[in-house]
Target: Nitrate ABC transporter permease protein
Amino acid sequence: MSTFDQPAPVHEIRERFGFLRRSYAMLIKEFIQLKRDRVSFAMIVMLPVMQLLLFGYAINTTPHNLPSAVLLQEESDLARSVLKAMENTAYFRFLYEVHDVEDFDNLLKSGKVLFGVEIPRGFERAVRRGDKPALLVAADATDPVAASAAIGSLGMVVQTALKHDLYIGDPPEMPFEIRAHARYNPAASSSLNIVPGLVGTILTMTMLIFTALSVTREVERGTMESLLSMPIRPVEVMFGKIIPYVLVGFLQAFLIIGIGVVLFGVPVLGNLFLLALLSTLFITTNLSIGYTISTLVQNQLQAMQMSMMFFLPSILLSGFMFPFAGMPAWAQYVGECLPLTHYLRIVRAIMLKGASMQNLHFDTLALATLMLVAMTVAVTRFRRTLD
Model:
C-alpha cells in the first residue's frame, strides 16, 4: 500500500472532529446571545421590513395632487374651466383661493402650496376678443422633481379647457397662453435643493448618534453611577450632555452652508439670525431624541441600531430624497412627526425664498412641540432608569 493510501492518524481525526464540535458550540452560543439581545434581533427584522414598506407604498418619484392656490381676479366660466382642466391632469389640487397678491406670495414662501395660478381680470373677455392673454403659473422650484412633471403637463390644459367653452374639438389656434414661472430655483439646479437639505440630514444623523453613544458609553464604563453619586440632578446631567453638542451642531451647519455658498453658489436670502435660532431648536430636538434612545438601550451597539432605525424614515419621509407632497396621506402624517420634515421646510425657505418668521410659524411651532415632547420623555425615562 502506498503512502497516499494510508489512513490519517487518529490524532488528526480527533482534531477535525474537535474543530467541528467547537465551531458548533460557538455557533449555538452566538444564537443564544442574539436571542437574548432583543433590540438587535428586532432591528434585524424591522429594518428590511421598514425599507420594503416605505419604498413600496410611501415613495413616489412622480407626485400627483400637489397643493396649489389660485389668485382669482375674475369669476368666469372660462376661468373655472381652466382650473378644472388643471386638476384633471392629476398634478394640481387647489386648496386655497386668494384675491390678494401678498397672500398668494406668502402661501408659496411658507411652503403650504407648490403652485400658484393667477387668472387676470378680464381674462375671458380678452380670449373672446382674440387678444391672446397670458395665464401665470408660479411654481415653487426648490424641489425640481416635484415641479418639473406638473409644469410639463400644462401644454394639454389649453385644449381641454376650451373644448366645451369656445370650440367644439381643438381650437384653430391657441386663444391664450400659459406662462410657467419657476420661482426660487429658475434653473432647476439640484444643488440648491440638496445643500440646504444636507444641513438637516447631517445634523439629524450626528446629533442622534453622538448623544445616544455618549450616555450609553458612561453606563458601559460604570462612570454614570459615580457621576450620579455627586450632588447633581438628572436634568442637569442631561443639559450638561446636550449643550456641548449644540455647539458641535452649529459648527457642522456653518461648514455645510459655507461650503454650499462658496462652491455651489447656494444663496442665503433670509435672515441668518433667524436661521441660527431655528437651527438651535432643531439641534436640541434631535439631541433630546438621542438622549431618549440612550435610556432605552443597554449598550452602544443597540444605541447605534436604534438611531439608524429613527434616521431611516427621517430621510425617506421628510422630503429630502423624495417629494413630500407625492406621498400618501398616512406617510405624510408620519413625516409630520419627524423633526427633519419641518427643518427642511425652514432651511430651504430661509435660504432660497428669504422667508420670515411669519411664513414659518407652523413649522417652528411643530418643531418646538416635538422638542418639548422628546425632552419630557428623556427626563422621565432617565429618572426611571435611576430608580
Q: What stands out?
A: The mean pLDDT is 81. The longest helix spans residues 190-221. The radius of gyration is 29 Å.
